[in-house]
Design brief:
- This protein has about 375 residues and is an alpha/beta fold.
- The protein has three domains: about 140 residues, Rossmann fold, CATH 3.40.50; about 60 residues, no CATH class; about 140 residues, no CATH class.
- It has 17 helices and five strands.
- Strands 2-3-1-4-5 form a five-stranded mixed beta sheet, with helices on both faces.
- Helix 10 runs antiparallel to helix 11 and helix 16 packs antiparallel against helix 17.
- The relative contact order is 0.07.
């Protein structure tokens, strides 16, 4: 720790800062998720208490070590005569822009109380350090300290870690169902296929199962289905609107078929010109479009309603999804009219501009409302 202390002192001495803020960054908000502590945590005693609570909740979490390292850095700088304060700030579980914005707001709140002109960043990895450009918008960063855990490098420790992950793959259902379940199914089907002599057919089945498993895991389909079917009010709303939406989408196909002029279909193939083909397609889409849009709207409305009831802050995305769906309807409808009646393509411009304007205006209003609510929440905290 002495080498790090010397490095920090050298960095501070090279700067013009005389009031330093030691900032421990927890971008994914482990401290809030695991202990319920509201950040920013300001002061030595408060940071020690928060680090102890996090270490008790999850002894393997590296963020508690980062907080202790920040406190140690604070004490070293105090002992050398610097005017210092220590603080722990946190983002959000999802990371991303919202996390960076929350960290920036918390640092500004601390600066209102302690007007520092230099910052020493303490983190446990590159993810937390990615926030440094955000911090530099309000405060000069004079030094960065990365906390690396010291561990045993013996062969026994390596075997212990390897054994721990093997047990996790074998006994943790979250991992075993994919890493053991899928290969187990493939081996079982392959063995049966070899016994009964259908090797080629079984190989095609194995490839299909493996491909389906990879797609399900790649696009989080299993987690999405698990969240969808949870026995909660939000889950029931999602199930109902999803089933209703899918049924409406499927029913749009016979509705589109029934709207096509049967005389056009009964004509000889030689008389069906390219222009007639466009009419058939246009008539089909015209009949299917309202019910198809109702089905999509039911699914999007269900997502919006379940998120709103569950208190999940995704209303902006959900509302914009519905706005875009509504704005696209006249554009799609006019496009079909152009196909059927062979109208000028310029007739597509007015609904296109109107839909674009509606989307931009809605997005602006929603984002302003979101920022206003976010600022009010931070002030109240």
């Amino acid at each position: 720790m002495s080498q790090r202390s010397d490095k920090i002192e050298k960095d501070v001495s090279a700067s013009t800062a005389n009031k330093l803020l030691v900032i421990c960054i927890d971008r994914d908000n482990d401290i809030g998720e695991k202990t319920g502590i509201i950040t920013p945590v300001v002061g030595r005693n408060a940071c020690i208490e928060a680090a102890q609570r996090l270490a008790l909740e999850d002894p393997e979490d590296a963020d508690s070590n980062s907080m202790f390292a920040a406190i140690k850095t604070y004490e070293d700088l105090i002992s050398k005569g610097y005017q210092v304060e220590v603080v722990t700030v946190a983002g959000t579980k999802e990371r991303g822009v919202q996390a960076d914005e929350k960290i920036l707001i918390e640092i500004k709140k601390v600066l209102e109380v302690f007007s520092a002109n230099g910052a020493v960043i303490v983190s446990d990895g590159e993810d937390d350090e990615s926030v440094i450009p955000v911090v530099q918008n309000v405060l000069a960063v004079v030094s960065v300290q990365r906390v690396v855990m010291k561990v045993s490098r013996s062969v026994e420790y390596s075997y212990a870690v390897f054994g721990k992950y093997l047990r996790m793959l074998a006994y943790d259902s979250k991992y075993s169902k994919f890493f053991l379940g899928v290969p187990g199914i493939l081996l079982l089907i392959g063995g049966i296929g070899s016994i009964i002599g259908y090797t080629q057919e079984i190989f095609a089945v194995l490839i299909s199962i493996a491909g389906a498993a990879f797609l399900i895991r790649a696009f989080d389909i299993d987690r999405a289905w698990s969240n969808l079917t949870k026995p909660t009010p939000m889950g029931f709303i999602r199930i109902f609107t999803m089933v209703a939406g899918v049924l409406l989408i499927i029913s749009s196909i016979p509705a589109g078929i029934s709207s096509v002029d049967q005389e056009l279909i009964e004509k000889d193939a030689e008389l069906i010109t390219a222009f007639t083909d466009k009419i058939i397609i246009g008539q089909f889409v015209t009949g299917a479009l309202p019910i198809l849009w109702m089905g999509l709207g039911a699914i999007f409305a269900g997502i919006l309603l379940s998120n709103w009831i569950g208190g999940i802050p995704r209303q902006i995305t959900d509302v914009l999804r519905l706005v875009v769906l509504i704005a696209l309807y006249p554009i799609t409808s006019q496009f079909i009219t152009i196909m059927i009646k062979d109208e000028s393509a310029f007739t597509l411009v007015p609904p296109l501009l109107a839909g674009l304007a509606a989307t931009l205006i809605s997005a602006t209003i929603l984002f302003k409302k979101y920022r206003k609510n976010k600022s009010q929440e931070m002030v109240s905290d």
